[in-house]
Specification:
Number of helices: 16
CATH topology of the largest domain: Rossmann fold
CATH class of the largest domain: Alpha Beta
Shape: globular
Number of strands: 21
CATH architecture of the largest domain: 3-Layer(aba) Sandwich
CATH superfamily of the largest domain: Succinyl-CoA synthetase domains
Largest sheet: 8 strands, mixed
Distance between the termini: 43 Å
C-alpha cells in the first residue's frame, strides 16, 4: 500500500500524548502502520523500521504523520482525523488570549510557584531538558528512555545537590501527593509510601494495597537503573529520606528487581536507620530473610502489599513458606507455556517463580538462570512486550496492545503451547479498551487443550474498571488470578 506523509510546522506535542493519539487513530481507522510523532531523526528512523519509507529530513520542531492507506481518499480522511485531534488539544476554554510558553524556563518565570516538571521528549534531548528543570528548582519525572547512564548519574547528582526529586529516566509510574503521573492507577489515600525501581511493580503493589483497604500517600518511581552499580541508588536513598521525614508516611515499601550487591547493602543500611516499619521485595531474590529489625522481607509483589497493610494496622503477617509449588514434569517440552506480558516486572517475577518450580525458561529479558529467547532448546517462553525491541517506533503495549495481540494469535496456533499466561494493566495512560483484540482472538479459539490464565492489575476506580475487566475475561473462560504470582502458579500447574 502507498505511504502518505504530512508535516505540521512548529507544532510540539509530548511523546505520551502522541502515542495515545496514534493508538486512537489506528483503532478508529483500522490502519496498523501509523506514526504520529515529532519529526526527529530517531522518529524518522523508526518510521523506516515500520516499513514507512519517506523522503523527509529531520525537523525536530515539526510534528509528522505518516501511514499506509489504500488510496488518497482514505489518506485524506485519516489526515482530517489527525488534524481534528491535534486542534482539539489546542482549544482554550478561556476567552483571554495567553502568550504561549515554549520552554521550561519561560514557564517557571510565569508560574512562580511551579515545583514539578514531567518530561517526555526523545532521549537525545531528554537529559538537557531535565537539567534545565533542575536548575530552575523543579522536581522532575523523566518519562523518556534512551538516556545514557552517564547522563542519569549527572542528573541525579545535580538533583541531590539541589534537594530535588529526579525520577527516571524511563520512569513510568508515580503518584505524588495524590497526583497520578505516567502509568498510574486510582488509589485510596492513606499512610503507606512506596519507592520503586520498577514501574509495573509499583502498580501491582499500590493497587493491591488499595484493593485490600489500605491507602497510599506517595508512590515514587526512580527509574529501573537507579539500583545499578553506577547510579548507586542515589534517588532511592533520597526518596527514602523524604518518606522518613514525612509525618503522613507511617509505613514504607521498597520494590525493585535485584539491585547490585553493594547498592543493596546501602539501601538496607538506610532502611534500618529509619524509625518506621518497612517492607522490602527484591523481585527474584531467592532467599529473603523474613524479618530483620524494622524490615520485613516479602517473597512476592502481592505479599509485599499484604505485609504493608498489616504493618499499618500495627500487626504482622505470618510469612508461611509451606505452600505447595507446582513441579516441572519430564515432558514439559511437549506442554509449553507462553507468557506474554506488558509489564516487565511481571515478566521477571513469573520467570523467577517458574525457575524456582524447576521449569526451563527462556525470555527476551532473561532473569538469572533463564535462557535467551534465541536458545534453540526446550523451554517455556516469557516475553516482555514492553521491552525496547518491541516499542521502538511503536507505542507501549499498555497504550496500544495490537502488537501483543499479534504475538498472542501466533502463540494460539502453536500446537506445543498448552497455556497462555498474560497480564492486563489498567489505569491512566493505558488503553481504555485493553481487551478489544484479545476478546476476538479468544472467541476464535477452537482448541480444547489450550488454557488461558490472566492477572489484571488495577482498581475498580480506574477508567477501565478492575471488576468489569475481570468479569469480561471470566465470561470468555479465562482463569483470572488476584495477582501475578498466583496467575503464574495457576499457569504452571496446568502444564
Amino acid at each position: 500500500m502507498p505511504v502518505f506523509f504530512k508535516s505540521f510546522k512548529n507544532l510540539y506535542k509530548d511523546s505520551v500524548s502522541l502515542m495515545q493519539l496514534t493508538a486512537s487513530i489506528s483503532s478508529t481507522t483500522g490502519i496498523e502502520k501509523l506514526s504520529v510523532a515529532m519529526q526527529t531523526k530517531a522518529n524518522l528512523q523508526r518510521a523506516q523500521i515500520l516499513g514507512l519509507n519517506i523522503d523527509a529530513k529531520p525537523s525536530p520542531n515539526d510534528l509528522m504523520a505518516v501511514f499506509e492507506a489504500a488510496d488518497a481518499d482514505e489518506a485524506l480522511k485519516v489526515f482530517d482525523l489527525i488534524e481534528k485531534a491535534l486542534n482539539a488539544k489546542e482549544e482554550r476554554k478561556s476567552e483571554v488570549k495567553e502568550q504561549k510558553t515554549v520552554s521550561i524556563i519561560q514557564t517557571k518565570e510565569r508560574v512562580v510557584d511551579l515545583n514539578f516538571a514531567l518530561i517526555s521528549v526523545p532521549g537525545a534531548y531528554a537529559a538537557a531538558e531535565a537539567l534545565k528543570a533542575l536548575k530552575a528548582g523543579l522536581n522532575v519525572m523523566l518519562f523518556s528512555d534512551n538516556v545514557s547512564e552517564d547522563d542519569e548519574l549527572m542528573l541525579k547528582e545535580e538533583a541531590v545537590k539541589r534537594d530535588l526529586l529526579m525520577m527516571g529516566p524511563d520512569c513510568g509510574t508515580a503518584v505524588i501527593n495524590g497526583m497520578p503521573l505516567g502509568f498510574a492507577n486510582v488509589l485510596k489515600k492513606g499512610s503507606i509510601g512506596l519507592v520503586g525501581a520498577s514501574g509495573t511493580g509499583l502498580q501491582e503493589v499500590s493497587c493491591a494495597i488499595s484493593n485490600l483497604g489500605g491507602g497510599l500517600c506517595q508512590v515514587i518511581g526512580t527509574g529501573g537503573r537507579d539500583l545499578h552499580e553506577k547510579i548507586g541508588g542515589l534517588m532511592s536513598m533520597y526518596a527514602l529520606d523524604l518518606l522518613a521525614r514525612d509525618d503522613s508516611t507511617k509505613v514504607i515499601g521498597v520494590i525493585s528487581k535485584p539491585p547490585a550487591s553493594s547498592v543493596k547493602e546501602k539501601i538496607i543500611a538506610k532502611l534500618k536507620s529509619i524509625k518506621k516499619p518497612v517492607v522490602v521485595h527484591f523481585v527474584g531474590d531467592k532467599n529473603p530473610k523474613s524479618q530483620d529489625g524494622n524490615i520485613t522481607y516479602a517473597s512476592s509483589l502481592i505479599e509485599c502489599a499484604k505485609i504493608a497493610c498489616a504493618l499499618l494496622e500495627g500487626g504482622s503477617l505470618s510469612l508461611s513458606k509451606d505452600e505447595v509449588l507446582p513441579k516441572a514434569k519430564s515432558n514439559e517440552s511437549n506442554n509449553a507455556l507462553c507468557a506474554i506480558f506488558c509489564g516487565g516486572t511481571f515478566c521477571a517475577e513469573a520467570q523467577s517463580l517458574a525457575l524456582e518450580c524447576g521449569f526451563n525458561v527462556k525470555s527476551n529479558v532473561p532473569v538469572q538462570g533463564a535462557k535467551s529467547l534465541k536458545y534453540e532448546g526446550p523451554g517455556n517462553v516469557f516475553v516482555d512486550m514492553g521491552d525496547d525491541e518491541f516499542t521502538n517506533g511503536r507505542p507501549h503495549p499498555m497504550i496500544d496492545p495490537s502488537l501483543r495481540d499479534e504475538f498472542f494469535a501466533k502463540s494460539m496456533q502453536d500446537p506445543h503451547v498448552k497455556v497462555i499466561l498474560f497480564d492486563v494493566v489498567l489505569g491512566y495512560g493505558s488503553s481504555l479498551t485493553p481487551l478489544e483484540g484479545l476478546k476476538k482472538l479468544i472467541k476464535l479459539n477452537k482448541r480444547s487443550d489450550l488454557n488461558f490464565v490472566c492477572h489484571v492489575c488495577g482498581t475498580d476506580e480506574d477508567p477501565q474498571s478492575l471488576k468489569n475487566t475481570v468479569n469480561e475475561l471470566k465470561a470468555l473462560g479465562v482463569t483470572v488470578a488476584d495477582s501475578n504470582y498466583d496467575a503464574t502458579l495457576a499457569a504452571l500447574a496446568l502444564l
